[in-house]
Known about the structure:
By secondary structure, this protein is an alpha+beta fold. It is about 25% helix and about 25% strand. The protein has helices spanning about 10-15, 60-70, 100-105, 145-160; strands at about 15-20, 25, 40, 45, 50-55, 60, 80, 95, 120, 125-130, 135-140. A three-stranded antiparallel β-sheet has the order 1-2-3. The chain has a three-stranded antiparallel β-sheet with strand order 4-5-6.
Amino acid sequence: MKRSFETPISQMLETYRLNPETGRIFWRIFKNGKIPGDEAFKSKRKNGSLFGRLPCKKHVAAAVVSFALHHGRWPQAVVCHLNGDITDNRPFNLAEVDKQGQYRRSVRADSQSGITGVAPVGSNWRARITLDGKLTSLGTFDTEEQAVQAVRLAKARKRAGGATYSPIRAV
């Protein structure tokens, strides 16, 4: 998906300053009552994510602006928060992903664990992952934390082996 921003990145770099340690964006220039050092892109959406208005009057997410200021270019795809925290706009926590990659990172709304592939089964927790297009059980565990660790370890091994990640659709 090609994204279009009317404000040149050079103008963004002159207008805003990114603190890479916090992900917060600040004004560099006097503009509409804002003074250098004031925080920009601090309005909150209903979901808690931050946004603001570009000089071209277009509203944009703070994560997109943080990405642009850090990389010196506008993102060409969706900007995703790697740790899942939509308020964490530090550059190392942001990545460009296509729609498929964004879906892979999503967790079902009814997930009890918050981790794809981990679900309660009676008094235990089940861990599963998709390998080569097939749902593979990693076992049942006494605690949720053990099941989460099993899924994270399996995903890390899968990435190291170069396998493609396929989301678990039914847990």
